[in-house]
Amino acid sequence: MNNNFEGLDILSMSDIMSGPEPDWITKDFLAQVLQKEVGDNVTVIKFTTSPVVPPGNNYGSTIFRLKIEYSMPHQDAEESVSIIVKSELTGGPIKEVFNLTPVEGTFYYEFVPVAKRLIDMSFVPKSYNSPRPQDIILEDLKEQGFIMADRTKQLDYDQCRLYMTAAAKLHAVSVAVFKQRPELTNALGEEKIFKDDQVTADMFKTLCKYSFEMFIEETNKTERFKKYASLIKNTVPVLWDMIVKAHKPREGLKTINQGDPWVTNMMFKYNKQGSAIDIKLLDFQCLRYGTPVNDVVFFMWTSANNEVKKHHLKELYDIYLTTLNGHLEKLNCLERLTLEEFTECVNMLNPEALYWAGLPTIVYPEPVDFEMIQRCKETNNYEDMKIFFRKVFSDEYCTNVLPGLLESLEINGVFEYLKNI
Questions:
Q1: The CATH number of the domain where 207 resides is what?
Q2: Residue 344's pLDDT is what?
Q3: Are residues 167 and 65 part of one domain?
Q4: Is the per-residue pLDDT at 1 higher than 80?
């Protein structure tokens, strides 16, 4: 059973938060958070903070756990509750790169209440009242037995199947929600990652350049897959632009997209045998409005392990498509996503599959140092980046992971598609 929470006690709060505990976290603030849940007369006695995720599992926000002890009038015993507080970044290279508009509060406090009246939304965490709109207050899923999977190992079939069904429900209900609240498409729908914005594009193109130098070099060392090295090399200069183009709005079914559904943006519950039996989707900072296939492809190539990508992609795609169209029917929505439309979208997103394959930082145990990347760009000295990617493409990775990843790209027609465009 994957468990990334082991050993967290050794982390300091500075590992998780880029600074001291915010001064707005007070007893009065927390009483306001709890009032809607437990009653207006709640008194917060004390609270403590602790880490939530290790570095590298969260880039776009500060996030921490609060254990609150409180009392109510006419009750002798004190009670306690654990909550998660998620705050926007106030600065730094990540803030500059993504320039994320604050949409997550809109999702939890406007979208979800409408969706809950239409469908079971238990695949997203419950939110608490937040006196500060820019800060999200959520239930602590660890208290319910949910844990984060190990991103370095990626996800197995059971975990991927759970994601497919949850994502299909989210996508389907968004069609119905947007009929009731069409203004939310504009509030939530802007592309956050794959866009023409110069700062964003420059950062990811820089990452791509130095990661793919190693990717091509190591591919060229393999007997079976070295025939693709020149194809990859010729694709790299236009790869980002191909991905951006694939994410442009097009005709067909449009839904909300989680935006970046990878391993660290979901949690799982397991049975005694260690098999995943339930899922919660997390992190809705990168929401977009477009074809739901964007989410499916992003997830598969960032999160599924090689065994799944090689042998179970079609099966999981079928589960997703059947679940999506089934929920659209239950919600009395006439829209559908046909197999032909789904396949066309998957093919158009093949450049993204190559992109994630060439960025093994998603499975590297150390976090990406975006400040280092910025420093390299400013000084025009990229030696630190080269050193970093030499570590990422370790002997172990190139021997045990890379061949299976290249085989996955081959089996699923990614190389064939790139050859013919």
A1: 3.90.1200
A2: 96
A3: no
A4: no
- Contact between 295 and 316 under an 8 Å Cβ cutoff? The reply is no
Q: What CA–CA distance (Å, rounded) separates 344 from 33?
A: 46
- Please check whether residues 178 and 54 belong to one and the same domain: no
Question: pLDDT per residue over 355-401, tens digit each?
Answer: 999 999 999 988 888 888 888 888 989 999 999 999 999 999 999 99
Same domain, 415 and 291: yes
One domain for residues 247 and 340:
yes
Across 286-315, average pLDDT? 96
Question: Where in the sequence is the domain holding 63, given as residue range(s)?
Answer: 8-144
User: Are 63 and 135 found together in one domain?
Assistant: yes
Choose one of 109, 144, 179: the last residue of a domain: 144
At 16, phi and psi to the nearest 5? -100, -40
Query: How many residues comprise the chain?
Result: 421
